[in-house]
Write a structure and sequence with these properties.
The structure holds two protein chains of two kinds. Helices cover about 25% and strands about 40% of the residues of chain A. Chain A is an alpha+beta fold. Chain A has two domains: about 80 residues, Alpha-Beta Plaits (2-Layer Sandwich), CATH 3.30.70; about 70 residues, 2-Layer Sandwich (Alpha-Beta Plaits). Classes of the chains: A alpha+beta, B alpha/beta. Chains A and B meet through helix 1 and helix 2 of A and strand 6 of B. Chain A: InterPro entries: Acetalactate_synth_ssu, Acetolactate_synth/TF_NikR_C, Acetolactate_synth_ssu_C, ACT-like_dom_sf, ACT_dom, AHAS_ACT, AHAS_small-like_ACT.
Chain lengths: ~170, ~600
């Protein structure tokens, strides 16, 4: 009997692609066209000489769907390598957020104190506001933003997740 | 000043096409491609077939590609010319047909300005091509064309679109021959030997095996079909083919169970349901084949051979997958099989075959004959009997006539059956036949058609007449969109909502108006004469056969049902049961 594993899993997938026009649209179109989820997607050129970009995608789905996602990505002509960091050994992942807090008085002091605990940097300050730069795993960034909510949280900009395998091996 | 070796973009394009082995282009001129057409005027290496609608150009290129195994080539202008190709490109993507479609584009300086006849065709066709390119520099043009052909024909074939802004084809640049272009796109062709060894282990243990063959074997080429036939005959296994796989294994061979799936044969579907080992070669577990997924071949182990890793475990989980080209894998499979001198369980195999013969004896394609009204199945049986000595190329449109053709024609060779399987494009067959006839000028090419589908691209009759392509259009005219009518009768309480066309042209007069030959048959006694005359005429023919409007296509697996829940005919009681949409995939 054909059995479909139903449990939903979260996977972080690294994709090495040619840095050419339309490549990001191809990847995103694949996800929307086939109804896959994207929780986070980041992209930037990582090799100027070879003109390669690296895309990090955090996605969710059943085992069968995640397998499909990887195979569909591999099928795209400008895609060189697809690596499922979640299953291929240990990896580290980070996210950066810029968090604007607008407040005065005690709230402002408290925001600074928490920022200190989270090792967030102040990268802009006025008499009524701070912009914090916080780096860490997604839940750390989430926690920081949550704590800022009652302290005058005004604006958030996040990079999304970047990830890399631990140890000497490269993608 | 231009260097001596430099050519203009249009010259580079045509040179690249010639170097890629292109002989025929199906196309339609317009503003953005005028420089290319001007260059075409000055040469005679490339033949151009002037279609009447760009969609037909793509289907014609598909017909050309399917019947030759080469890459089909299309040239159209920007904007509407380009957007008209979308249905054809999607059709080619679904059925894995290698095409290169060249579209004109407004000059690079105008891109994004909503210029006259501008369409973002690389954006529009991203999901319906295997890959596409926008060439912005004439010095990349030759390389891009060579790569486009490489991508179109390598791995799982598919359509590739190359968008050429007008200024790029007008400016001067350097030509690069194919030998100087190295593509990074290299799909895996050799199968993993360990997996093949394991496949042989599984095959050796099988008691109720079946080989399930898809279009991938035909795409791989005649060698793959030969090897498949060798493998099936060597093992004595039953072999069923998908709609796309017809012709990969000789249809008249007793080991062939015919087509499987929604309108497949009783024996093929029950053998799929009852098998203990399924060997899928180049098929993709399409929903029209599997029926309800959670009741699909419930007692079987499954081996899946496919060149596209994303086809593995997409719809159905398999026990063993071998990724690679069918010909390579079958060759290795046969080699390992022979080296190991595998002994099958002959007794089990014999018992399995006697069960299959029992199903076969139900004669599921049987139909009520009539001497008053033309039964569509009768017309197709006569067409098959009276043309098979000519080894005809058959194309179809989409609907009942397509399924009847698939059931009643037997294909002994690959590349002789062209039908829109994945997308189900009405209007495919006539232009596809045009492409086939272009590639095989002396062959008998028949478009088995319905009166509704025919009218979706009938303007191409003019193309046939202009280019002296003697395609025979064999219309089973039942005055209805037959398959829509059938579903409305069986599933929607007989409410024939908009499926009856009250007005049709007089097809005989229509043929005359185009300069083709029109023939008509209204009773069974006229069918043979019509077919003989149709074959004898050396011009395009529209044959209008007035068939029984109430005939339904059986066997049928109703939507949401399983292989063992087939409806065999109008008298079958299981018709009263409604289809299930609860478990597994909801089928449309």
């Amino acid at each position: 009997m054909t059995h479909i594993a139903e449990a939903i899993e979260r996977h972080t997938i690294a994709v090495l692609v040619d840095n050419e026009a339309g490549v990001l649209a191809r990847v995103i179109g694949l996800f929307s066209g086939r109804g896959y989820n994207i929780e986070s997607l980041t992209v930037a050129e990582v090799d100027n000489r070879e003109q390669l970009s690296r895309i990090t995608i955090v996605t969710t789905g059943t085992k069968m769907i995640v397998e499909q996602i990887k195979n569909q990505l591999r099928r795209l002509v400008p895609v060189h390598k697809v690596s499922d960091l979640t299953i291929e050994g240990a990896h580290v992942s980070r996210e950066l957020a810029l968090v604007k807090v607008a407040s005065t008085g005690e709230k402002r002091v408290e925001a600074l104190r928490i920022a200190d605990i989270f090792r967030a940097n102040v990268i802009d300050a006025t008499n009524e506001s701070f912009v914090f730069e916080v780096v860490g795993a997604t839940d750390k960034v989430d926690a920081f933003i949550r704590l800022m909510e009652p302290l005058g949280l005004a604006d958030v900009s996040r990079t999304g997740v970047v990830a890399i395998a631990r140890g000497p091996a490269a993608l | 000043m231009a260097h001596q070796d430099t050519l203009n973009g249009a010259e580079i394009l045509l040179k690249a096409l010639v170097d890629q082995g292109v002989e025929v282009i199906f196309g339609y001129p317009g503003g953005a491609v005028l420089p290319i057409y001007d260059e075409m005027f000055k040469q005679n290496r490339l033949r151009h077939i002037l279609v009447r609608h760009e969609q037909a150009a793509v289907h014609a290129a598909e017909g050309y590609a399917r019947s030759t195994g080469k890459v089909g080539c299309v040239l159209v202008t920007s904007g509407p010319g380009a957007t008209n190709t979308v249905t054809g490109l999607t059709d080619a993507l679904m059925d894995s047909i290698p095409l290169v479609c060249i579209t004109g584009q407004v000059p690079t300086s105008l891109i994004g300005n909503d210029a006259f006849q501008e369409a973002d065709i690389t954006g529009i066709t991203r999901p319906c091509t295997k890959h596409n390119y926008l060439v912005k520099d004439v010095n990349n043009l030759a390389k891009t064309i060579h790569e486009a052909f490489h991508v179109a024909r390598s791995g799982r074939p598919g359509p590739v679109l190359v968008d050429l802004p007008k200024d790029v084809v007008q400016s001067k640049g350097e030509y690069q021959p194919p030998s100087r272009v190295k593509s990074k796109y290299k799909p895996q062709v050799k199968g993993d030997l360990k997996a093949i060894e394991k496949a042989v282990d599984m095959i050796a243990k099988a008691k109720r095996p079946i080989v399930y063959v898809g279009g991938g074997v035909i795409n791989s080429g005649p060698a793959a079909c030969q090897l498949l036939t060798q493998f099936v005959r060597m093992t004595g296994f039953p072999c069923t083919q998908t709609l796309m796989g017809l012709g990969a294994f000789p249809g008249s061979d007793p080991l062939s169970l015919g087509m499987l799936g929604m309108h497949g044969t009783f024996e093929a579907n029950l053998a799929m349901h009852g098998c203990d080992l399924m060997i899928n070669v180049g098929a993709r577990f399409d929903d029209r084949v599997t029926g309800r997924v959670n009741a699909f071949a419930p007692y079987s182990k499954k081996i899946h051979i496919d060149i596209d890793p994303s086809s593995i475990n997409k719809n159905v989980l398999v026990d063993l997958s071998v990724v690679g080209d069918a010909a390579h894998i079958l060759e290795d499979l046969i080699k390992v099989w022979k080296a190991r001198q595998v002994r099958m369980d002959d007794k089990a195999l014999k018992a399995w075959w006697s069960e299959i013969e029992g199903w076969r004896s139900r004669n599921c394609l049987h139909f009520e004959t009539s001497n008053k009204i033309i039964k569509p199945q009768y017309a197709l049986q006569r067409l098959y009997e009276l043309t098979k000595h000519k080894n005809p190329y058959i194309t179809t449109e989409v609907g009942q006539h397509q399924m009847w053709a698939a059931q009643h024609f037997k294909f002994e060779q690959p590349n002789h059956w062209m039908t829109s399987g994945g997308l189900g494009t009405m209007g495919y067959g006539l232009p596809a036949a045009m492409g086939v006839q272009t590639a095989h000028p002396d062959a008998l090419v028949i478009d088995i058609s319905g009166e509704s589908s025919f009218q979706m691209n009938l303007q191409e009759m003019a193309t046939l007449c202009q280019h002296r392509l003697p395609v025979k259009v064999f219309i089973l005219n039942n005055q209805y969109m037959g398959m829509v009518r059938q579903w409305q009768e069986l599933i929607h309480g007989g409410r024939y909502s908009e499926s009856h066309m009250h007005t049709h042209p007089d097809f005989v007069k229509l043929a005359d108006a185009f300069g083709a030959v029109g023939l008509r048959a209204e009773s069974p006694g006229e069918v043979d004469d019509l077919i003989k005359e149709m074959i004898a005429v050396d011009r395009p023919v529209i044959a209008d056969l007035r068939t029984d409007a109430s005939e339904n296509c059986f066997p049928m697996i109703m939507p949401g049902m399983a292989h063992n829940e087939m409806v065999l005919g109008p008298e079958d009681r299981s018709l009263d049961k409604p289809g299930s949409e609860e478990d597994g995939m909801v089928l449309v």
